[in-house]
Design brief:
Organism: Araneus ventricosus
CATH class of the domain at 99-192: Mainly Alpha
Distance between the termini: 166 Å
Helix content: 55-70%
Keywords: Metal-binding, Zinc, Zinc-finger
GO molecular function, one term: nucleic acid binding
Protein name: CCHC-type domain-containing protein
Number of strands: 0
Strand content: under 5%
Low-confidence stretches: 1-13, 292-298, 300-305
Radius of gyration: 52 Å
Shape: elongated
InterPro entries: Znf_CCHC (IPR001878), Znf_CCHC_sf (IPR036875)
Largest sheet: none
Structural class: mainly alpha
CATH topology of the domain at 99-192: Non-ribosomal Peptide Synthetase Peptidyl Carrier Protein, Chain A
CATH architecture of the domain at 99-192: Orthogonal Bundle
Number of helices: 12
């Protein structure tokens, strides 16, 4: 089947303006019928599009099961307009949304990154109501205890991981208690690791500013103390290195030195020649005194051997 170009209506009367806005409109599938027509009408009001033009655009955006339904049921209708087209599509695929479809959305719901615990609890309750109430036939009923257990189970399993682990340990008995516990955990976590993106009012901003200022001052003082210690350590290392690299102290000019032994200038006492000569003389004298046949002990021995 060949569909008309969106620049003209079916009767070729009007030219479509602001065609660049077409990229803002998603494809029409069996899962987004209500959202599609809401977006189309909003963009159409901005672009001053007529309903015949929006009908042509909607036909061009058909995909999958919606296109199959249109070709089988609506393509042959001669007097179809935008309102009839929208009503037929929305009603048909609203009925097509089965219990399994809504239950899949309910059971796969998870807390989003910037979503608070309370917002997630409201959203999960809405999904549960749509899943468990909208598909009941007249006379059918689901027990309140089963509904409460199902809601509690899905709420806990959909929480963020660091919140879910602590809620499971707390083992709440009902949905309301689980929401309160999860909210306390999220609040305490936000205090320990504040996220500036989640700060919403002036009181929280002031508290965060005080906490940030206190943390900054503590960090600055610690940094100054560490810097001082590093400077002292560097100074000590420099002193040790200089002491190792400095040459040994040199003696004074010997011309000004007086020997303690001979009282003459020009040398130290350990270099004094007179002192060395006297030491040698004393060593020679002492060695002869105690040799055999000489000295006092040697003569006495000879006299004892030869008394006559």
């Amino acid at each position: 089947m060949t569909l008309p170009h969106p620049s003209v209506t079916t009767d070729g009367a009007d030219v479509l303006h602001n065609t660049s806005m077409l990229q803002m409109i998603p494809s029409l599938t069996d899962r987004n019928t209500a959202e599609f027509f809401s977006t189309l009408e909003w963009v159409g009001s901005l672009g001053n599009w007529s309903k015949p033009q929006m009908l042509v655009i909607a036909k061009l955006k058909l995909e999958g099961r919606v296109r199959q339904f249109f070709e089988a049921s609506l393509a042959t209708v001669s007097d179809i307009n935008y309102d009839k087209f929208k009503e037929a599509i929305v009603n048909h695929f609203r009925e097509e949304k089965s219990f399994s479809f809504d239950f899949a959305k309910f059971s796969s719901a998870h807390q989003m990154e910037q979503e608070s615990v309370k917002d997630f609890s409201v959203r999960i309750e809405g999904l549960a109501h749509r899943c468990l109430n909208n598909h009941l036939e007249i006379g059918e009923n689901i027990s309140d205890s089963f509904r409460a257990r199902l809601l509690l189970s899905q709420f806990v399993s959909g929480l963020k991981q660091f919140i879910k682990a602590q809620v499971v340990v707390a083992n709440p008995s009902d949905f309301k208690t689980a929401v309160e516990i999860a909210d306390r955990i999220q609040t305490s976590q936000s205090i320990l690791t504040p996220n500036i993106n989640s700060v919403s009012d002036s009181a929280h901003i002031n508290d965060f500013a005080k906490l940030l200022k206190s943390t900054t001052e503590t960090f600055t003082k610690s940094l100054e103390l560490v810097t001082q210690q590093l400077q002292a350590l560097n100074t000590r290392v420099d002193e040790v290195q200089k002491s190792r690299q400095s040459p040994p102290p040199q003696r004074q000019n010997k011309n000004r030195v007086t020997c303690f032994h001979c009282n003459k200038q020009g040398h130290y006492a350990n270099e004094c020649r007179k002192k060395l000569a006297e030491r040698r003389q004393n060593d020679t004298r002492n060695s002869g005194r105690y040799s055999y046949g000489h000295g006092a002990y040697g003569n006495n021995n000879m006299e004892r051997r030869n008394p006559n």
